[in-house]
Amino acid sequence: MQDTLKLVTQVFGVSGNEEDIREVIFNEIKKYVDETRVDAMGNLIAVKKGRKKKIMLAAHMDEIGIIATFIDEDGFIRFSNIGGVSPFTSLGQRVRFRNGITGTISAEEKLEDFKGLKLGKLFIDIGCKNREEAEKLVKVGDTANFVGEFYVQGSSAVSKAMDDRSGCAVLIELIRNMPKTENEIYFVFTTQEEVGLRGAKTAAFGIMPDCAIAIDVTLTGDTPECGKREVKLGGGPAIKVKDNAYIAHPAIRRYLEELAAENGIPYTLELLDRGGSDPGAIQTTGIGVPCGGISIPCRGVHSPAEMVSLEDLEYCVKLTSLFIKNYKG
Amino acid sequence: MLIKELTDLNGVSGNENEVREFIISKIEGLCDSYKVDSIGNIIAFKKGGGGKLKVMLSAHMDEVGFIVSGHSEKGFIRFKAVGGIDDRILPGKKVIVGKKRLSGVIGAKPIHQQEREEREKIAKIRNLYIDIGADSKEEAEKLAPLGEFIAFDSDFVKFGNDCIKAKALDDRVGCAVLIEALKHSFDFELYACFTVQEEVGLRGAQVAAYNVMPDVALVIEGTTCADVPEVDKHEYSTVLGNGAALTIMDRTCYCDRELVQYLYDVAVNNGIKVQYKQTTTGGNDAGQIQRTGNGVKTASISVPCRYIHSPVSVMSGRDYEAVERLTVAALYQMSRDRAFKGGW
User: Fold this and answer.
1) What is the per-residue pLDDT across B26-60, written as a single tens digit (0 to 9) for each?
2) How far apart are CA B95 and CA B150, in angstroms?
3) Surface of B (249-268) touching A: CB under 8 A
4) CB–CB contact B249 A67 (8 Å)
5) Fold annotation for A2-63+160-326
6) What residues of A are designated binding site for Zn(2+)?
7) What residue segments make up the domains of chain B, in order of their start?
């Protein structure tokens, strides 16, 4: 699990640019599934055939990042956000483009008030003398992810893109250790979640599942001066009640709670006050899809140092496994 | 001139009939069939030469404007915006109310009678009113009933070397390009969709795309152009005169990267001026089309429009030509390739 997590978190895959991460995940899972396909939005859909319920498991493989919008005469790059990128966490960070070029983010020096910090006042320096030199390395429209090395300390793992490569790692782990089930399982590694749950929409249309579960990270309530939330690092999976994009189907939510309680899996309930996740797009597909979420508690979400607990991840695999094995609708 | 004819028409979101009828009169005979769906989109179909690809062109017929929301005792009209309109541009503007095309003006208290603070404050739409010359509430209600649409009143004017000023360039320029494209024949099945209610939430396109279920979609648009004083160079978005603008990403859509590159290459190979839109703000029908069905490879080609969403939108005639040429050239290229070469 730890090796998979390290592998998938470090790969490039800013929303809309998921080619590399898709390739890596494909190679990790191809020999364990019955078929795979990629749709027009770039979702990777892997199927384990079955005769009973069609269950869609979704983890998004895209990550937040930046997109180069303008290169000035001196070779500095102006940029815009892809997904929820705060100017405050961006300042002083390194970003890496797909071709490996690394840049540093600085603010215009005349900026006096920290409150006035906006992405439009920041720029990326790739150490070039002028526009011509810079354009050989980075073009307008190129995207970069934040640099954040992977490390494990105790039972915690830290990296960029835990959101939602940790969810991808859970699915990969599950694919390799599939429980016996008659249900048909669709493992979907979705695209463009961070810019508006976009990939999940077309993936769900192509599958028309009987139910769907998203494995995504969620905010915790266990850091200084943070919002009040039951979810905490090491507290086990957070079973989704609601976020800003959807309300979990009560039957799914209750079933997950039952499964966790019966099998000694610690859990908390998640009522996310900020942000949404893929079921927001999945549940209104076709005639409607009952949806739920098994969330991974994560500190520092949308920063280059997102922290998850390896124990929580193991429990997420276990709970998801129990669900797909036993779900009868 | 087609753009003059198109921008002289009124088609505030949800009230696109005038534009729809005009477009139908222009495309009858250019396509094999057309239909108007339940939300009001025109879907024009042109059979191809047997190629498997299904291509959708999309341009929205609607424009930003207003809606009558109330009447004062003395016969003035209260109104609300339909689509994104900057309150600051409103006082002193001429408008046309309803199908009867009544003249109206957006009024404000005379400067003589304004307190200093009033003068420094920006008038909000809720404090403004439209004067249609009515004497009483009853008369106003009769002339401009609740819910009646209101459009900007603005003439099509050519000025400078190559500039055109009009209202509703967003997106009658796109409609004009689609009409032009229907004059050509391609290997694939072409669906030219003239959509409704883009300005209030990309609504028509969602239905049109579901109906067509295309493989590839090109959205032809008018887009922001902020190459004006007081704006930093890196926030220009597009530059007037620099040609057709390709969107990489905006708030609603991350355009298919291979398709964008394909369009860029077609432009370069055909000597058509092309630029990338250099901001990620705004959005258009591409956002809905891309996410329809199993997903659609989607991109936007736009004409830069200064002062967009105002009665004095300004564009360059050459930029318009570039968009028209690029659209047609890209379709011919896809026709020759018998596919959009790309895909995962």
Assistant:
1) 999 999 999 999 999 999 999 988 888 899 999 99
2) 7
3) 249, 252, 254, 256-257, 260
4) yes
5) Aminopeptidase (3.40.630)
6) 60, 163, 194, 216, 302
7) 2-63+167-337, 65-152
